[in-house]
Design brief:
The complex is a heterodimer of chains A (418) and B (160). With 418 residues, chain A is mainly alpha-helical. Chain A is 49% helix and 11% strand. Chain A has 18 helices and 8 strands. By secondary structure, chain B is of the alpha/beta class. In chain B, strands 1-2-5-4-3 form a 5-stranded mixed sheet. In chain B, strands 6-7 form a two-stranded parallel ribbon. Classes of the chains: A mainly alpha (418), B alpha/beta (160).
Chain lengths: 418, 160
C-alpha cells in the first residue's frame, strides 16, 4: 500500500479554533492589521515542544490556542501492555525535571491498589526524595523564568544549585536524571550516610545561595515590571479550570495535598502552605521561592527524624527480592521469576492516588482486572491542565508577556503530552 | 462521608444512581448517562458538598458488548478535602455523552483527550478537536482493538 500524502492545503482545525474564539478585547488605538503568529513547537522560550497559535492586534494578544501532542508517546497504552514494575522507568520520562517524585507518585498508587504498607524508613526516604525533586524543579522554574524575561545569570546560578542535588541522586541510586529509584513496596536501595552528609552540605549553603538568586530578581526593576500584573487568572477561574500547585496557591487557594490529603509522613512534618493573592507571574515566582525554603525545612526535619529499619515491605509475593538472595536461595528465585514474568497479583478494583508534585497534582488512576498489568492507567498530569489556562492568562496581554506567562506556568511537555 | 454522599445522592436522584463501589476508601458512583450533568450540577452547587474542582476525566475501554466505554470523572471538594468518582457507561454504537464544560470549565480539555484517545463524543463541547494525535488521524489509539505497534501508514507523510 503506498504511503498516504497530505492533500491540498485546507484550513487546519487549530486555525479554525483560533478564529472561532471571541475576540472581545478592547484596544484604544488598534493598528489596522490583525496578524496570526505561530509560536513553537521549536521556539526556545516555550519550554519544550509547546505550540501556540496567537492572534495579534498590533502587539496585543486577542486570542490564543495551545496545541499539544508533539511529545506524545502513548504512555497510557504502554502501561496497559507492561507489568506494574516495568512501568516505573517510564515515569521518569513524564516530568523529567523531577523524576524521583514521579516514581514515588506511581508506586504510591500501585501500593494503594495492592493494599500494602511500606516501612517507616522507606516513607521518610521517599519524603526526602520528593522534596529534593521539588527544590530541583523549582530552581529550574525560577531560573528559566528569569531567562525568559532577560536575566540570564539566574539560570546559571540555579543550575549550579540543582547540580548539587543531581549529585545526591547519583550517589543515592546511580543515575542523575532517569532515577527509577522506587520499587513497589520499597526502594531500589537504602539511603546512605554519604547522602546525609551531602544533603547537609547542600542545605547549609542553600539559604545563602537562594538568597543571592532571590536578590538578583526581587531587586531587579526590569524583572518586577515584566512580571507584575501579567498573566492574571482570577481565583474562580483557577478553581473551575482545575489548576493545581503554585498556580492555584498564587491565586490565594491554600490547596496542598501534603496537608489536605496527607500521604507518606507529611502529617508528622511541620511546614506552611504558601499562598499569594495577586495571581500574576510575580506571585507564582514568590510562591516557588517560598516553597523551596519550606522544602529545605522539611528536608532538615526528615534528616533529623529518619528512623532506622528496613526499607522494603515484607511482602514476598509483591516486593522484588534483593539480588543476593535471588542468586542463592530457591524461594527468592521463584518469587523473582513470578514477579518479573507475570507481575504482582493485584485485586480487582480501581484506585486513584494523587500527590503534590512540583507542578501541581500528579495522579495515577489505575483500573485493575486482577492480572499482572493494569487494564487502564490514566495519568493526571498537572502540566496539561495548567496549560489549558494559557488562553485566559494571555488574552489582552502583550506579545512579550507570552514567554513570561509560560515561564510562570512552568510546563514540562513530557508530562503534558504523556 | 462516603455513605453520606451516597445516601443523599440516592434520595436526590433515585432513578439516576445505578451502582456504587467502595474500594480502598475511594467511592465510585455509576450514574445513568443522560443524568450526569444534573448530578454534577447538584454536587457542585450543593453548599454541603461543594465539589468545585474537576481533577480528572478519563475514558476507559472495557471491551465488552454492552456499555463498552466508560467515562470516569474524578471531582474534588476544596471544602471537605474529598475526592469522588463518577462513572457513566457509553455504548459503542452511540458514543455520545453530554459535556460537563458548563459545570466545570476545566472539563473541556479532558474531554478533548477522551475524544482523541477513545472516540467518545461530548455533545455541546465548543471545541472538540484531537488533543495529541494529528488532525487527520482516523483511529482512536487507546481503544483495546488498536494494536500497540500502531497501524502502518496511518500517519500521512509529507509530500515530496
Amino acid at each position: 500500500m503506498p504511503a498516504k500524502t497530505i492533500d491540498e492545503p485546507k484550513k487546519s482545525q487549530i486555525l479554525a479554533a483560533l478564529e472561532d474564539q471571541d475576540t472581545t478585547v478592547e484596544i484604544d488605538d488598534p493598528l489596522e492589521n490583525e496578524m496570526i503568529l505561530n509560536m513553537g513547537p521549536q521556539h526556545p522560550a516555550t519550554h519544550g515542544v509547546l505550540r501556540l497559535l496567537v492572534k495579534l492586534d498590533g502587539e496585543t494578544v486577542v486570542a490564543c490556542v495551545p496545541e499539544l501532542g508533539y511529545l506524545h508517546r502513548g504512555y497510557e497504552k504502554i502501561a496497559e501492555n507492561s507489568t506494574y514494575h516495568e512501568f516505573i522507568p517510564h515515569t521518569d520520562r513524564l516530568d523529567y525535571l523531577s523524576p524521583i517524585s514521579n516514581n514515588v507518585a506511581y508506586v504510591l498508587a500501585v501500593e494503594k491498589l495492592l493494599g500494602i504498607d511500606v516501612p517507616e524508613r522507606a516513607k521518610y526516604i521517599r519524603v526526602l526524595c520528593c522534596e529534593m525533586a521539588r527544590v530541583a524543579s523549582h530552581l529550574v522554574a525560577v531560573g528559566s523564568l528569569g531567562m525568559d524575561v532577560g536575566a540570564l545569570t539566574v539560570l546559571l546560578w540555579t543550575f549550579r544549585e540543582r547540580e548539587k542535588l543531581m549529585d545526591i541522586y547519583d550517589v543515592l541510586c546511580g543515575a542523575r536524571f532517569t532515577t527509577s529509584y522506587t520499587r513497589i513496596g520499597g526502594l531500589q536501595q537504602d539511603w546512605t550516610p554519604k547522602c546525609t552528609a551531602m544533603l547537609h552540605t547542600f542545605l547549609n549553603e542553600f539559604d545563602d545561595d537562594l538568597g543571592e538568586v532571590e536578590q538578583l530578581l526581587t531587586h531587579n526593576r526590569i524583572f518586577i515590571e515584566r512580571c507584575e500584573n501579567v498573566g492574571c487568572l482570577s481565583q474562580e477561574d483557577a478553581i473551575a479550570m482545575g489548576m493545581t500547585g503554585p498556580i492555584l496557591r498564587a491565586a490565594g487557594v491554600p490547596r496542598d495535598l501534603r496537608k489536605d490529603n496527607p500521604y507518606l509522613v507529611y502529617e508528622k512534618l511541620d511546614f506552611d502552605v504558601i499562598t499569594y493573592d495577586e495571581s500574576d507571574v510575580l506571585a507564582r515566582f514568590y510562591v516557588r521561592i517560598a516553597e523551596m525554603k519550606q522544602s529545605a525545612s522539611i528536608l532538615r526535619q526528615a534528616l533529623e527524624t529518619i528512623p532506622v529499619g528496613p526499607f522494603a515491605a515484607n511482602e514476598p509475593k509483591k516486593v522484588l527480592p534483593k539480588k543476593q538472595p535471588t542468586y542463592t536461595k530457591m524461594e527468592e528465585l521463584i518469587q523473582d521469576f513470578m514477579i518479573i514474568n507475570l507481575g504482582v497479583d493485584p485485586p480487582v478494583g480501581e484506585v486513584y492516588q494523587g500527590v503534590e508534585s512540583s507542578k501541581g497534582e500528579l495522579g495515577f488512576y489505575i483500573i485493575s482486572d486482577g492480572t499482572g498489568n493494569p487494564w487502564r492507567m490514566k495519568i493526571r498530569s498537572p502540566s496539561m491542565v495548567n496549560i489549558s489556562a494559557l488562553p485566559k492568562m494571555l488574552k489582552g496581554g502583550m506579545v512579550s508577556d507570552i514567554v513570561a506567562v509560560i515561564g510562570s506556568i512552568d510546563p514540562v511537555m513530557g508530562e503534558a503530552d504523556k | 462521608m462516603n455513605e453520606h454522599i451516597l445516601s443523599s445522592l440516592k434520595t436526590q436522584f433515585p432513578e439516576s444512581i445505578e451502582k456504587s463501589i467502595e474500594f480502598r476508601g475511594d467511592l465510585t458512583v455509576q450514574v445513568r448517562k443522560q443524568d450526569i450533568v444534573r448530578v454534577c450540577e447538584f454536587l457542585k452547587t450543593d453548599a454541603e458538598y461543594a465539589f468545585d474542582m474537576i481533577i480528572d476525566l478519563s475514558g476507559v475501554d472495557m471491551y465488552r458488548p454492552e456499555g463498552r466505554f466508560e467515562v470516569v470523572y474524578n471531582i474534588y471538594s476544596l471544602k471537605n478535602k474529598k475526592y469522588l468518582r463518577l462513572k457513566v457507561l457509553v455504548d459503542e454504537a452511540d458514543p455520545v455523552v453530554q459535556t460537563l464544560g458548563g459545570v466545570w470549565s476545566g472539563a473541556a480539555w479532558h474531554e478533548r483527550e477522551a475524544f482523541d484517545m477513545f472516540g467518545i463524543k461530548f455533545e455541546g463541547h465548543p471545541d472538540l478537536r484531537r488533543m495529541y494525535m494529528p488532525e487527520e488521524y482516523e483511529y482512536y489509539p487507546m481503544r483495546k482493538d488498536f494494536p500497540l505497534m500502531g497501524i502502518p501508514d496511518s500517519i500521512p507523510l509529507p509530500r515530496r
